[in-house]
Backbone:
């Protein structure tokens, strides 16, 4: 199969100590309303920075002692929330705790679940996934809870069908304030929910994504990109105003390569709203991968990206249709066209 090569231009090299290690965790890069954030750890502290390199990284101590709790920034970057093993904590940027919302430990009875959280676009509430109730009849499942950012007081909650899952949250850069929540259960199961808090009630919709985790969403939150965990195909779904899929297109790996050993790896992402960038390799953690640019309208390959040096599977998209790839303790910033001055 012949696909035209395309060499991107290097826009910058951004220092980001710890990024290679962080990319193995669910909060490493996050699409949040208004921007994309990177979360790294160093010497017991947490560092949060905008992925485009603007502004200074915010470094703050973690008073929860839960070094690997899922950390997410408020829209203005002035506060951070951590979903830890046994509590959700809201931190000021200096590391002091504004409040803490305790819950049953994810690790109880050797559980493997791990929560996630995200602020609403106005910054007034935090939506988090916490463990549910363990009864004599068994575990009732995980719970989505809305917490008031000023006080930590619960404002609403909804049960989920997932149980002891590992969660990840995507939020549109613009548009409505819905959250796209992926719940990974074991090696094969992946559930997807859309959550919307209208200021009073929390509404959730479970999507049939065929056990495929969500890897990215478009700017308006109307298209979801998922891929089959074995790497055999990726799927782009379009949602209506009620968050129900109205169309879906699937791209098998065979449309990109004739090598039967290769598969999609890492996280396929949207670069802008018209293109997908996906990594392909023989195995998930390959040091050298092939990156393909794909048209969202047709799901046909447009080009194979040729970098000046080997590149791994991790791709971090930015709002201006450029993207980042990690290189030890720095990020390479790529774009397809020379930006206007």
Residues:
């Amino acid at each position: 199969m012949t696909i035209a090569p395309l060499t991107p231009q290097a826009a910058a090299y951004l220092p980001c100590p710890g990024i290679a290690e962080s990319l193995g965790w669910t909060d490493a890069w996050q699409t949040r309303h208004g921007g994309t954030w990177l979360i790294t750890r160093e010497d017991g502290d947490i560092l949060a920075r905008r992925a485009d390199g603007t502004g200074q990284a915010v470094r703050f101590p973690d008073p929860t002692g839960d070094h690997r709790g899922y950390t997410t920034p408020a829209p203005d970057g002035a506060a951070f929330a951590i979903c830890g093993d046994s509590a959700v904590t809201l931190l000021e940027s200096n590391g002091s705790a504004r409040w803490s919302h305790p819950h049953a430990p994810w690790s109880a009875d050797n559980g493997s679940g791990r929560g996630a959280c995200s602020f609403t676009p106005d910054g007034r509430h935090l939506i988090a996934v916490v463990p549910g109730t363990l009864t004599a009849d068994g575990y009732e499942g995980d719970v989505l809870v809305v917490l008031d950012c000023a006080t930590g007081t619960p404002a609403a909650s909804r049960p989920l069908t997932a149980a002891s899952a590992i969660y990840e949250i995507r939020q549109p850069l613009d548009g409505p304030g819905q959250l796209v929540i992926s719940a990974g259960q074991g090696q094969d199961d992946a559930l997807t929910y859309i959550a919307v808090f209208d200021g009073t009630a929390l509404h959730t919709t479970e999507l049939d994504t065929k056990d495929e985790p969500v890897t990215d969403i478009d700017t308006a939150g109307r298209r979801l990109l998922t891929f089959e965990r074995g790497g055999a195909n990726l799927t782009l779904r379009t949602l209506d105003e009620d968050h129900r899929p109205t169309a879906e297109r699937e791209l098998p790996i065979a449309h990109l390569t004739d090598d039967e050993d290769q598969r999609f790896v890492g996280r396929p992402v949207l670069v802008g709203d018209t293109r997908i960038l996906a990594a392909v390799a023989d195995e998930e953690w390959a040091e050298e991968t092939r990156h393909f640019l794909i048209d969202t309208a047709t799901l046909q390959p447009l080009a194979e990206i040729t970098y000046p040096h080997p590149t791994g599977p991790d791709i971090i998209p930015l709002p201006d249709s450029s993207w980042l790839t990690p290189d030890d303790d720095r990020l390479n910033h790529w774009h397809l066209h020379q930006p206007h001055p």
